[in-house]
Specification:
Number of strands of chain A: 2
Strand content of chain A: under 5%
Helix content of chain B: 40-55%
CATH architecture of the largest domain in chain B: Sandwich
CATH architecture of the largest domain in chain A: Up-down Bundle
CATH topology of the largest domain in chain B: Immunoglobulin-like
Largest sheet of chain A: 2 strands, antiparallel
Oligomer: heterodimer
Number of helices of chain A: 21
Structural class of chain B: alpha+beta
Order of helices and strands of chain B: HHHHHEEEEEEEHEEHH
Number of domains of chain B: 3
CATH class of the largest domain in chain B: Mainly Beta
Largest sheet of chain B: 5 strands, mixed
CATH class of the largest domain in chain A: Mainly Alpha
Distance between the termini of chain A: 12 Å
Chain lengths: ~650, ~375
């Protein structure tokens, strides 16, 4: 006890200096070089959404081309200049648009934006930590991400255009500037951007793993963690294991591109010249790339499913069904995702024996995925479903995961993949299962945690409008692609006019384009809602959704160190909803049975969780409610676990 | 109510803006009046820009105005709506219509999908595909109906409290078994079909065999047929040049009778075991023969091959489909550059006699020009 009070005194002194410093925080330290995980989450969210919106606008341009291949659109020349002479899109630039659309959405929005935002926001807050294990590396993580974004965007302004060999940048096309203009400087910038991006992801990932392993508050055992933390943790491990091989692949590609090596190049006669490179093979790149590429699908998907678990449980007012199965499913998907990569290469000319093996491993992933779907549906079963915006998006995620996931049965089986490989069936499949479904989880997460980020609520009605337009629109865009896929229509075609088996789908392409343009326009509702609510939204109470997890016990206004006094102590798992015998339909994790017996009324709007959290010794008597002014941030106790027995 | 005090200022600003826009429009109208010739619509003209600005301004001001009216009068037509009920009904409506649309679309677009497989191994792939479809399509509908049922039955409004149902081991075990069965069946069937000679077939008794070479380059296909020896000769990419577009090594006696059809067509005899040796001169391409359910990448520096037995002639397929214009097509299905979408080659399947007759008209690869070029190369 004596040591504790000495420590408390030291903390108080330290605090005054800290507070002093706090008041003089400049624009640069607060918004740009912030080391506060909540600000970094906001940075990731806004950067991710901004680039993501650009990526979606690119798709509007190439959808226009696919629907009306013989029409001139003069405004295209206005915005694209030489890439759309007379308003007719240049085929090479079409490929650049497709490439940048894929790169931006897979890596920037759904890896950086999604994991970056929610891992930064939720891991410390839901685990009861003051901040990340290393706030400085966390800051660097965003800055690498940001400068990667700048380099990627800069490649639009290069004379030969941005990278155009598809988001998978298969050599030799990507390695040979003779092959297409986009493989010049644009390709180098693409690699530089990707390397910066991966460095950012790895720094973030190291931090997430360290934080989850070391900085959980007292009582937060692994099996009490919210599922979103489980999935973000797993994803960080996945990223740490799978991104480095991809970076190696990109470096070798850069060497082939610029230094004349032959890792991937062999026997090439291009532009009237036989190249000296011999002995390399593209299949090496394919293996290295997809060793990242397939886990990447789950790097995108798992956080989305984690967010969906939180949203569905909270808004159905019911514990998540089969928590342990959900945890094992996350781990199972993560493990299996490392042994399925070659299903992207069934027809690449690799040993056919591998086709059988990877068919078996690929279908294995259906089992944990289906278990998750069933658990979501059975969480809704006998629930008390609040159909608010976050819940709508969460149900939307589940719906898209069903529509997209089931078609994996076709693509994961080697013989069925022969006629479907690289067709619109694949485009429909991955857009539904990991594209739209992850974007929906990201939207749902944003609507749900917006009050936690900005202390204000987003407009509900605009949220409904946004959801319904996007849900209907996205289905109308991507579901018909399955039909086209059964017709064998190949992807990455500038126009479907040259083949009779593709040109017959023209009217469906017009339909898809119109649906896509409406869906894209509907995103403006979200943009408006997002920025308007940020400044003028209804002020949020501390726990607007009546959720159990710890992030809602911290003060609404953002302060360094998250909790004004002690860190919360966890007494129960994360899904204590509608527990029989409880006074209300949720019991936050920091409320102990003694608190309930004591008559703490945590459900009331003016309830201050610090009255519970800062009660060091039960029965010692109520302390005065602490506010930022009277109970400052203990600057020295960043990693402190309160009430640990002193050794 | 806070916003109300900005109303006069907004009015002032907007009237100034309108005055500006009006002045610009009048000036432009006067300018246009002096012009005599009638031009096509100039989308970049100032008039269109004004129209765009006007539209945006009108939209923004309307939203603002509605907002202010709602705030000041409290008039809100949606206030009486029950959020959960409306969204639940929308789920049922959108979900029901969506499933109906998916089924209707499947039947509407079924005639446009690939016709029956025209190769010997194709039907086994199609059978597996149809089986998988007969599992996934109902699963898609049933699981969605379960989802919509949960929303309809348990939305807040119909129920007021939730059950505390943490897990149910019997139910979880049932799911595990239920999902494992199709997974195991489809995987096993898939591996079986794959191990059927999809990738490596051997000729049956008395079956004719044909080895041809298809070479991909930006942005066309070339095909090489063996001569009377039935064998393709060596090649090397450094020999490409001049008229020797495929880099054929004519020191190899097997090369000297090889044929290089000028027309962009592949002719295949029906019923023969065809092996296509696929290579690429420059970048990654992919030999995609959707009607034959055959597909393999053309990898520079790697000898890939694909085998199949064409079973339906072009004429027969035209008759079956009732489409006299039908042709088998070879497409590139791996991004290879700007004109990737345009790498087409016609494939003609015909009887052995027709094939022989066609082949006899093709010109050999070893032309006098190639011979001269080769001599020059050796002398230099």
């Amino acid at each position: 006890m004596a040591t504790q009070s000495v420590a408390a005194a030291a903390v108080t002194t330290a605090h005054h200096e800290h507070e002093h410093h706090h008041h003089h925080e400049s624009f640069w330290t607060k918004y740009i070089f912030s080391q506060d995980h909540k600000m970094i989450a906001k940075q990731f969210l806004i950067t991710g959404f901004t680039v993501g919106f650009i990526g979606i606008l690119l798709s509007a341009i190439f959808r226009l081309q696919l629907a009306y291949p013989d029409t001139n659109f003069p405004f295209l020349q206005t915005i694209l200049g030489k890439w759309a002479p007379e308003g007719r899109l240049d085929p090479n630039f079409y490929m650049a648009l497709v490439t940048m659309h894929g790169t931006i959405l897979v890596f920037w929005l759904l890896t950086g934006g999604l994991s970056g935002t929610f891992a930064n926001l939720l891991i410390p807050l839901q685990l009861g930590a003051r901040d990340m294990a290393s706030p400085f590396i966390n800051m660097l993580s965003f800055h690498f991400f940001f400068w990667g974004t700048v380099v990627l965007m800069a490649s639009f302004f290069v004379e030969t255009g941005p990278a155009a060999a598809g988001w998978t940048v298969y050599p030799p096309l990507s390695a040979l500037p003779q092959g297409m203009p986009g493989s010049g400087l644009g390709m180098i910038l693409w690699i530089v951007a990707l390397v910066l991006f991966v460095v950012g992801v790895l720094m973030g990932g190291l931090n997430y793993i360290t934080t989850v392993l070391n900085m959980r508050t007292q009582g937060m055992s692994p099996m009490r963690m919210p599922l979103v933390v489980w999935s973000l943790f797993t994803v960080a491990v996945l990223g740490l294991l799978s991104f480095p091989p991809a970076v190696a692949a990109f470096f070798l590609l850069l060497f082939d591109h610029s230094l004349g090596t032959s890792f991937y190049l062999s026997d090439i006669y291009i532009a009237g010249q036989a190249l000296p490179q011999q002995g390399g093979n593209v299949l090496l790149y394919l293996h290295l790339f997809w060793f990242l590429g397939h886990p990447e699908v789950y790097i995108v998907l798992l956080p989305a499913l984690g967010i969906t678990s939180e949203l569905i449980s909270t808004h159905a007012r019911k514990p998540i069904f089969g928590y342990k199965v959900m945890v094992y499913s996350i781990l199972g998907i993560a493990f299996v995702s490392f042994i399925v990569w070659a299903h992207h290469m069934f027809v690449s000319g690799m040993n056919p024996l591998l086709g059988s093996i990877f068919t078996a491993t690929t279908l294995l992933v259906a089992i944990p995925s289906a278990m998750k779907i069933f658990n979501y549906i059975f969480t809704l079963w006998k629930g008390n479903i609040q159909l608010n915006t976050p819940m709508l998006f969460a149900i939307g995620t589940v719906s898209f995961f069903i529509s997209g996931g089931l078609t994996g049965f076709f693509l994961g089986v080697a013989p069925m993949d022969i006629p479907l490989h690289n067709t619109y069936f694949v485009v429909g499949h991955f857009h539904l299962v990991m594209g739209v479904s992850a974007v929906f989880a990201m939207f749902g997460g944003t609507y749900h945690w917006f009050p936690r980020l900005w202390g204000r609520m987003m407009n509900e009605r605009l949220g409904y409008l946004h959801f319904w337009l996007t849900y209907i629109g996205a289905n109308l865009v991507f579901f018909p692609m399955y039909y086209m896929g059964f017709g064998g229509v190949p992807r990455r075609y500038y126009a479907f006019t040259e083949f009779s088996f593709t040109s017959q789908w023209q009217d469906l392409n017009v339909f898809i384009t119109i649906a896509a343009l409406i869906t894209i326009a509907a995103q403006l509702i979200f943009v408006y809602n997002f920025f308007h609510s940020m400044f003028y939204g209804k002020r949020a109470p501390r726990n607007p959704w009546k959720a159990t997890t710890l992030e809602w016990s911290a003060p609404v206004e953002h302060i360094h160190g998250n909790w004004t006094g002690n860190l919360p102590v966890v007494h129960r798992w994360a899904y204590e909803y509608s527990k029989p015998g409880a006074p209300v339909d949720f019991i936050p994790q920091y409320i102990s049975d003694e608190d309930i017996a004591r008559g703490v009324r945590w459900w009331e709007d003016d309830f201050d969780p610090s009255t519970v959290i800062d009660r060091t010794e039960p029965g010692e008597g109520e302390k005065a409610p602490s506010t930022p002014e009277t109970s400052p941030v203990p600057a020295l106790s960043l990693n402190q676990k309160p009430d640990l027995p002193q050794v | 109510m806070m916003r109300m005090r900005w109303l006069p200022l907004m009015g002032l600003l907007s009237s100034a803006l309108w005055a500006q826009i009006g002045a610009a429009a009048r000036a432009r109208a006067a300018e246009l009046a002096t012009q005599t010739s009638v031009q096509a619509v100039d989308w970049n003209s100032i008039l269109w820009k004004i129209l765009w600005i006007e539209t945006i301004v009108i939209v923004i001001f309307s939203i603002r105005l509605i907002n202010i009216v709602v705030r000041s009068t409290g008039f809100d037509p949606f206030a009486s709506w029950n959020r959960n009920k409306v969204n639940m009904r929308l789920w049922l409506a959108v979900g029901g219509l969506g499933i109906a649309l998916a089924v209707w679309g499947a039947s509407k677009y079924a005639p446009l999908t690939l016709p029956e497989a025209a190769s010997a191994h194709g039907p086994s792939i199609d059978a597996l595909r149809n089986f998988t479809l007969s599992f996934t399509f109902p699963a898609f509908i049933i699981v969605h109906l379960m989802l919509f049922y949960m929303i309809w039955r348990y939305y807040n409004g119909k129920v007021t409290s939730a059950a505390y149902e943490v897990t149910n081991h019997a139910l979880e075990r049932t799911f595990l078994v239920a999902i494992s069965i199709p997974v195991i069946v489809i995987a096993a069937w898939g591996i079986y079909v794959w191990s059927l000679p999809v990738h490596g077939q051997s000729p049956t008794q008395g079956q004719r065999t044909l080895d041809i070479e298809v070479v991909a380059e930006q942005f066309q296909w070339r095909v090489r047929y063996p001569g009377n020896d039935g064998k393709l000769g060596r090649y090397h990419y450094t020999l490409i040049g001049g008229e020797n577009v495929l880099g054929i090594d004519f020191t190899d006696p097997k090369s000297q009778d090889d044929l290089l059809p000028a027309l962009k067509e592949i002719h295949l005899p029906v019923g023969a075991l065809v092996t296509i040796h696929v290579r690429s001169k420059d970048v990654l391409h992919s030999l995609y023969l959707p009607h034959f359910r055959s597909h393999v990448y053309a990898v520079p520096g790697q000898k890939n091959q694909v085998m199949f037995v064409p079973t339906i002639t072009t004429k027969e397929m035209r008759r079956k489909l009732g489409n006299p214009e039908f042709d088998y097509e070879l497409a590139c299905n791996q991004l290879c550059g700007g004109a990737h979408y345009n790498m087409r080659m016609k494939v003609v399947v015909e009887t052995w006699e027709e094939y022989q007759q066609w082949l006899s008209q093709q010109k050999p690869a070893y032309t006098p020009t190639v011979m001269t070029e080769r001599k020059n190369l050796q002398n230099s």
